[in-house]
Amino acid sequence: MIMRVQGTVLERGPEWVLLHIGGIGYRVDVAATHAVDLRVGDEAVIWTHETVRDDRHELFGVRTREHLELFWKLIAVSGVGPKAAVKILGLFEVDTFCRHVMDGDAEFLTVVPGIGKKKAQKIVLELRGSIDLKADANERRIESTHVDLIEALVGMGYARAQARALAAGIPSDIVRIEDQIKAALTMVI
Question: Where are the stretches annotated Domain III (predicted)?
């Protein structure tokens, strides 16, 4: 399964982007709110879910790994397909979505096109027991923001927990992966 793509934005539509990756153009269906943020010519990283049918392959994209994990939970709900899950995750941050679900508030989902009151109640009912807000939101944010850095450090022999801790100490103004690695290694010395 294709889980993450990184490439240059060649084109974008109202709810899709075309990424140039290794000489191939991949169309990724994304939420309208996500497509607006992606500019032609920019480098983009999109977390994806691939569906394969007899007549087509489709990639559905979300902003972070955290969104992708919630996407998988959403499409496990009967009646919620990948397009609806992408629309839902385009409108809500993960923590906001989880808080509403944990509170049993289905009304918030009715603002999503195609999600009526009954489907919203079904989503909340089915997800309520599977969402854990006690997980450290900051750790999830660090993991999704610095995935390349963490993977590079793990590849160098650091434990994943140590790599996450080093990534947490990287200032947000350091954006190039080479500079992030250098900064992380200087913290160890």
Answer: 145-189
* pTM summary value: 0.69
In terms of Cβ atoms closer than 10 Å to its own Cβ (0-12, 13-18, 19+), residue 166 is buried
Q: Which of 59, 75, 47, 50 is nearest to 18 (CA)?
A: 59
The model's pLDDT over 94-140, given as tens digits with 9 standing for 90+, comes to: 888 988 898 889 999 999 989 999 999 999 999 988 876 544 455 55
CATH topology classification for 2-60: OB fold (Dihydrolipoamide Acetyltransferase, E2P) (2.40.50)
How would residue 20 be classed by pLDDT, with cut points 50, 70 and 90? very high
Please provide the CATH number assigned to the domain covering 64-130.
Answer: 1.10.150.20
Q: How many CB atoms lie within 10 A of CB 154?
A: 14
How far does the chain reach from its first CA to its final CA, in angstroms? 38
What are the pLDDT digits (tens) for 2-13?
Answer: 999 999 999 999
- Which tokens go with 176? 């190039």
